[in-house]
Amino acid sequence: MDHAARRARLRDRLPEVGIDALLLTRGVNVRYLTGFTGSNGQLVLTEDGAVFFTDSRYEEQSAREIPDLPREIYLGSFAAAFGGTCRDAKLRRVGFEAAGVTYKTYGELSEALEGELTPVEDEVERLRWAKDGEEIRLLERAQELTDEGFDRLTGKLSEGITERAAAFELELAMREAGAERVAFETIVAFGENAAEPHHRPTDRELRRGDLVKLDFGCVVDGYHSDMTRTVAFGDPGPELRDVHALVLRAQATGVEAVRAGVSGGQADEAARAVIREAGFGERFGHSLGHGVGLEIHEGPTLRSESSDVLPPGAVVTVEPGVYLPGRGGVRIEDMVVVQDDGARPLPRTTHELVVL
């Protein structure tokens, strides 16, 4: 990945933001700009260069992962090292990530800096919206492993298995296929529990007639996948079959609405209207989707009134749902690549109601 090109694009923003340098402390943004995968790293980006900071634990790792930047290995506090670098470079107005610095750390940095700290929001996050070819390849690979997990689990669902055991099977399948870890806490919900959008697996056992809602994903080289499918273990009955068909129509409509230049709010409304017009508008309470990449939830957002304009190369989820308390719920979710002429779904797993 061309981390230098990413830093150059961000560097071009410094004069417009009105700062001499930008301090990056959010690990995910430091990784995006440098390739560093350790747990402690900071980056000071100036108009003519950059300096990477870490502690002695990561001296060798950072040398390997960031061969193209000067590094400062500090023994004491980062604030002291940061202040010294800024003094040497005569940096007077330094931006910091408002979402990545605690109040305590802000005080330490302010005391160390002979100048002014200025909060900056979403500069790197905006750059991350549009994925390059290598990022999309990693997202595709993560999705492949997610599809494999689904195939393995559906072959093992049997009467009496618990939600927790099913979640473990999903996670194990993805790890054995090559994932470095799961993308988030796996959601497995049987029967009435599927009415909870973010249900945590319990010891509830699978019974005939249950809908089974599965929301899961994995991570490959830092990049996440996110997919939801709802299947049936035996016949769920006409009401829930109809709800599944409704959500399937809404999801297809949402995917059709996604293309470069469309706002997140427009995409959300396209899918939401299908559910609202069927009389279930109040049972779809969450947003249509979100960006996915180095974080499981990132921009752009697909929600009511979102003004985020979808750029080509963004990877977003489309995940409408309908939830009926006490009876069950359905969500269908794909990651899709935003293109000028539409959206390209990444999963190969069927959207149709699979009855096991």
Quaternary structure annotation: single chain
Tell me the radius of gyration.
Answer: 23 Å
Strand order of the largest sheet: 4-3-2-1-5-6
Name the helicity range: 25-40%
> Would you list the SSEs in sequence order as H and E?
HHEHEEHEHEHEHHHEEEEEEHHEEEEEEE
DSSP helical segment count: 11
State mean pLDDT (0 to 100 scale): 96
The low-confidence parts are none
Q: How does the overall form come out from the CA principal axes?
A: elongated
End-to-end distance, in Å? Answer: 42 Å
Structural class: alpha+beta
Give the strand content: 15-25%
Number of strands: 19
Please provide a brief summary of the model.
The protein is an alpha+beta fold and 356 residues long. It has helices at residues 3-11, 14-17, 27-34, 59-65, 78-88, 103-112, 123-128, 133-154, 163-177, 238-257, 264-277, and strands spanning 21-24, 42-46, 49-55, 71-74, 93-97, 116-120, 181-182, 187-190, 210-216, 218-220, 223-224, 227-233, 289-291, 298-302, 315-318, 321-324, 328-331, 334-339, 342-345.
Describe it for me?
The chain is α+β, with helices and mostly antiparallel strands. Helices cover 35% and strands 24% of the residues. The chain is built from 11 helices and 19 strands. The strands form 6 sheets. It has a 6-stranded mixed beta sheet, with helices on both faces. A 3-stranded antiparallel beta sheet has the order 7-10-11. The chain is elongated and about 70 Å long. The two termini are 42 Å apart. The mean pLDDT is 96.
